[in-house]
TrEMBL record:
InterPro entries: Aminotrans_V_dom, PyrdxlP-dep_Trfase, PyrdxlP-dep_Trfase_major, PyrdxlP-dep_Trfase_small
Family matches, as Gene3D superfamilies: Aspartate Aminotransferase, domain 1, Type I PLP-dependent aspartate aminotransferase-like (Major domain)
Provenance organism: Spirosoma foliorum
Limits of the Aminotransferase class V domain: 62-389
Superkingdom of the organism of origin: Bacteria
Phylogenetic classification of the source organism: Bacteria, Pseudomonadati, Bacteroidota, Cytophagia, Cytophagales
Protein name: Aminotransferase class V-fold PLP-dependent enzyme
Pfam family, one: Aminotran_5
Coiled-coil regions listed: none
GO MF term list: transaminase activity
Length: 398
């Protein structure tokens, strides 16, 4: 039997500026800024109004701290393996750029994806697969319920000696179904493939252990469960990417680039490990302090406690919604549903977009994705938010 957390989290709504009349169960689309993150942004803007006294090291220090925080969050002991990226598509493009240099890659091998994946995790492979003569295998979602265990089993079956690359998230961005990354990572290493993870819909809210999963790359957008600003993300690149080819040749990524008086002494060497993959102008004087503040809060809150809070918050709602002929993936460990992002399958007669609009009319925010409502609570949500969701769905589905 699991041991209860001796220090459970309570509702943190007082740390946010969300109005009492708004029921925002939609962190999977965009996280609201906490009051502390907003203040960090205001302070950064005020500082940039007068740049007098700015030092060369100030172009680097904020990102250094953020790399350390992100490393803590994913249980990595090497912040030098973290790069600052503007988006998931940028991080995936780094992988695609370097796939040709993977040891043993050859024409006829395959890239394994999961079905209904976010476009940034799909488009990245079209060009490189053509150039290298690779094929793309997509493991679709099962039609039957429960889906998670079957989907995981089919994904593992698709990974064989002919696999060059596997791209998978911890949690499906639409359905909230988990993928057993430990088992997948083990299989990927056995066949000599690369494992690349889009952690955008999980890291920050779901515990992740880099040392256990051992991915070759992990890419996260910062504006969802990392609770930071838009167009700023973070990526881990493992040893497979050492000495690889970056997407751009930013001057900050070179050795001794903080010695501004010597920038004309062009430096052929990059800083160590993942530093070459940083996006240009990765200082982000306004946004980096906001992400730093957000990561500090997440480290304090702890993803394990966020999962526990969201599980308890929604526990009474699911049975009521199943009475309306809605369906959801059951809890089933690392191949069941997550608690911070849950896909609720609507009855066949229901129009997801019409239901989403009915919810918005009552100030309840969730997302309609295909045939499901994506419900994504966080620490700022209250039982009243959940009651409002259930009340509207009972009204429109009966």
């Amino acid at each position: 039997m699991p041991v209860a957390d001796p220090n459970p989290l309570f509702c943190q709504k007082d740390q946010f500026n969300l109005p009492e009349t708004i029921h925002y169960l939609n962190c999977a689309t965009r996280a609201p800024f906490s009051k502390a993150v907003v203040q960090a942004g205001h302070s950064a803007l005020s500082q940039q109004a007068n740049p007098f006294g700015l030092r060369p090291d100030d172009f680097f220090s904020g990102a250094i701290r953020v790399r350390e925080q992100f490393s803590t969050l994913i249980n990595s002991d090497d912040p030098d393996r973290i790069a600052v990226v503007p988006s998931v598509s940028y991080g995936m493009a780094v992988v695609a750029r370097n796939l040709a240099f993977k040891q043993g890659v050859q024409a006829g091998q395959k890239i394994v994806l999961i079905g209904d994946e976010f476009p940034s995790d799909v488009y990245a492979w079209n060009r490189v697969s053509t150039e290298l003569g690779l094929t793309i295998t997509t493991v679709g979602m099962p039609t039957e319920f429960p889906k998670g265990a079957i989907w995981n089993e089919r994904l593992l079956d698709a990974i064989d000696s002919g696999t060059a690359l596997v791209v998978v998230p911890p949690v499906h961005w639409m359905y909230g179904i988990r993928f057993d990354l430990e088992a997948i990572g083990k299989r990927v290493r056995e066949v000599g493939a690369w494992l690349v993870i889009d952690g955008t819909q999980a890291i920050g809210a779901l515990p992740f252990d880099l040392a256990t999963v051992q991915p070759d790359a992990l890419v996260c957008a910062g504006y969802k469960w990392l609770m930071g600003p838009y167009s700023l993300g973070l990526a881990y690149f493992g040893p497979a990417f050492d000495d690889g080819v970056p997407l751009e040749e930013g001057w900050m990524n070179r050795l001794d680039s903080n010695q501004f008086h010597r920038l004309m002494d062009y430096q052929p060497l990059y800083r160590s490990k993942a530093y070459r993959y940083n996006v240009g102008e990765h200082t982000h004087f306004l946004q980096m302090p906001m992400l730093e503040t957000a990561l500090s809060q997440l480290i304090d809150w702890q993803p394990t406690r966020i999962q526990a809070y969201t599980k308890d918050l929604m526990a009474n709602a699911w049975s009521k919604l199943e009475e309306l002929d809605c369906r959801l993936e059951p809890e089933n460990g690392s191949s069941g549903r997550s608690h911070h992002l849950v896909g609720l399958w609507l009855p066949d007669h229901a129009d997801p977009m019409a239901i989403q609009q009915a919810l918005l009319n009552e100030n309840v925010s969730v997302s309609a994705r295909a045939r499901v409502l994506r419900i994504a609570p966080h620490l700022y949500n209250t039982p009243e938010d959940v009651d409002a969701l259930v009340r509207v769905l009972q009204s429109v589905l009966t």
